[in-house]
Write a structure and sequence with these properties.
The chain is α/β, with parallel strands linked by helices. Helices cover 44% and strands 15% of the residues. GO terms for molecular function: peptidoglycan binding. Pfam families: SPOR, TIR_2.
Length: 298
């Protein structure tokens, strides 16, 4: 699991490399390689990294503001409230992201002092906390990487590893005890203990099955809101508010649409057969949701 998922346009790769170097110098791990290995899919490789990241940094530039994929990745960060936008160029962010303050590092040059870049690092530290144990091997900014400092980092890492080992052992004993309890209970009652799904999740699954059976064909959606996997109630409230406003919205599971970011509840209208019909509906939706946008779902 990476600390930072870096979303950017391929045209900005040269500038992004400098950004990655600076982030890694702080001790954070960064996922930014967009080459999908043979045998992998977008959802299994990049989609999983996006879902597991602790922070999503989107780099807005002349190129990336036009990228559908960058917008999709940024939407994941916004839904999980871990999005940190930065400006490589002085451009307005796409609709749906303009209310989130972006760090303007368009004037930053690698290796040179920059107040804006220092502020960005401080903001990331507040989100990510202290660097992981592996970061102990990294010297503070401006200090050489000496063998003595490396030894200190390795010693600290061994100490942390020892504490983690003890903690894992204790958790394993606890888990075995819980499993034993349920086995004994099953033998005594003659029933297998099977936890029931939570009511909201079961209702959402039933709704998804019904909606899929009755939904018209088409690929284009009007997205009026995206919510994290654990925030179904907020998605339902948003859907109800828009329904009361006269909009025919529904709550869909993004996992049913291969081109949407995975594991989100999406309040949407559609699907529509073409982008033109989706855009016609979008004009109505924006009277209530100014940041709504169209998106091809499959």
């Amino acid at each position: 699991m990476a600390d930072i998922f870096l979303s950017y346009s391929r045209e900005d790769e040269a500038r992004i490399k400098s950004l990655v170097t600076e982030f890694e110098a702080q001790g954070w791990t960064v996922f930014w390689d967009r080459r999908i290995p043979a045998g992998e899919t977008w959802r299994s490789y990049i989609g999983t990294a996006l879902q597991d990241a602790r922070c999503i940094v989107v780099a807005w530039s002349q190129s990336s503001v036009e990228s559908q994929w960058v917008a999709e990745e940024a939407d994941e960060g916004k839904a999980r409230k871990i999005l940190v936008p930065v400006l490589l160029d002085q451009v307005p962010a796409p609709r749906g992201f303009r209310e989130i303050q972006a760090a303007d590092i368009s004037g930053w040059q690698p290796g040179q002092a920059s107040e804006r870049f220092t502020e960005l690092i401080g903001d990331l530290r507040r989100i990510l906390g202290k660097p992981s144990a592996s970061a102990r091997e990294m010297p503070p900014a401006g200090q050489p990487f000496t063998p003595e400092r490396k030894a200190e980092g390795q010693a600290g890492g061994r100490s942390m590893h020892g504490r983690r080992t003890v903690l894992v052992a204790l958790l394993a004993v606890f888990a075995i005890g819980i499993a034993g309890y349920f086995v004994v209970e099953s033998l005594q009652t003659g029933k297998q203990h099977v936890p029931s799904p939570s009511i909201p999740m079961q209702v959402a699954r039933d709704r998804a099955v019904t909606a899929e059976a009755t939904r018209p064909g088409g690929s284009w959606l009007v997205v009026a809101g995206s919510f994290g996997r654990d925030d179904l109630q907020s998605a339902e409230r948003h859907h109800l508010r828009l329904t009361r406003a006269g909009l025919d919205t529904t709550v869909i599971d993004s996992n049913d649409y291969p081109l949407l970011a995975p594991n989100l509840w999406v309040v949407a209208i559609g699907p529509f057969e073409s982008r033109e019909t989706a855009n016609a509906a979008l004009s109505r939706v924006r009277t209530t949701v100014p940041d709504a946008y169209t998106k091809m779902g499959r």
